Amino acid sequence: MERGSKLNPARRALCALALGAAMGVQAQPAPAAPSVPSDAQIAAIVVAANQVDIDAGQLAAGRARAEPVKAFARLMVADHGSVNGQATALAGRLHLTPADNPTSASLRQGGQDNLQRLRALQGDAFDRAYVDHEVAYHEQVLQALDGSLIPGARNAELRALLEKVRPAFVAHLEHARALQAQLGRRGG
Q1: What is the C-alpha to C-alpha distance for residues 130 and 85, in angstroms, rounded to an integer?
Q2: Helical packing angle, 39-63 and 123-144, nearest 10°
Q3: Is the pLDDT confidence value at 16 over 70?
Q4: Which residues contact 55 (CB under 8 A, 6 or more apart)?
Q5: How far is CA 22 from CA 10, 17, 67, 120, in A?
Q6: pLDDT for 116-170, tens place per residue?
Q7: What is the pTM of this model?
C-alpha cells in the first residue's frame, strides 16, 4: 500500500502527528488509531503533544549553546505548559478523563526517543537538532489540529480551546523556522 493512500484524512493527520513525535523525525510505522478520535482521546493527544515539547524545551533551555535557542526553549516550556494547564482545567470542568490511545502513546514514546537523541549531542549540533525537530514537530501538530483534532472535537469548548491555541502553534513554527535559518547562516 502506498503511504497514506488508503487512510482517511483524519487518520492520516493523527498518524502524521504520531510520526512527527517519533521522528525526531525518522519514519516509524504508523500506530493504529481510530479514524475519528473521541474527545477524551483528543484530550490525551493534546496533553501528550504539549508534554513532549515541554520536556524537549526543558532539556534545551539548559543545554543549548545559542541564547536565542535557549530563549525559544523557555518559551516552549511556558507556552505548552499553559496549553496543558488550560486543557487539564477544561477536562476537569467537562468531567472528561483523557483516554490514552495509540497516538498519545506514540507521541510520548517519540518524545522520549527525541530526548535520548538530543542528549547525545552538544553545542551547535544540539542546537540545530533541537530546532530542526521543533520545526518538523510544529508542522505535524498543525497538520493534526487542522486535519482531525479541531474538526473531530465534538464538544464546543474543546474545539474552541484548540482553535484558540492554534495561532500560538503557528507562531512557534515561524519562530523555529527563523532560528533554523539563523543557525544555518552561522554555519554551525
Answers
A1: 24
A2: 160
A3: no
A4: 111, 115
A5: 19, 9, 27, 17
A6: 999 999 999 999 999 999 999 999 999 999 999 999 999 999 999 999 999 999 9
A7: 0.81
Count of CB atoms situated within 10 Å of the CB of 38: 15
Phi and psi dihedrals of 86, rounded to 5?
Answer: -65, -40
Could you give the CA distance from residue 127 to residue 122 in angstroms, rounded to a whole number? Answer: 8
How far, in whole angstroms, is CA 131 from its chain's centroid? 13
CB 149 within 8 A of CB 30: no
Q: What pLDDT score does 184 carry? A: 86
CA-to-CA separations, 65 to 10, 61, 130, 134, in angstroms, rounded = 39, 9, 11, 16
Cell of 141: 501538530
Per the model's pLDDT, the better-predicted residue between 101 and 19 turns out to be: 101
Residue 188: what residue type? Answer: G
What's the rounded Cα separation, in Å, for the pair 162 and 86? 10
Can you give the length of the chain in residues?
Answer: 188
User: Is residue 35 within 8 Å of 11, Cβ to Cβ?
Assistant: yes
The tens digit of pLDDT for each residue in 64-87 reads 999 999 999 999 999 999 999 999
Coil, helix or strand for 28? Answer: coil
Instruction: Identify residue 118 by its one-letter amino acid code.
Output: L
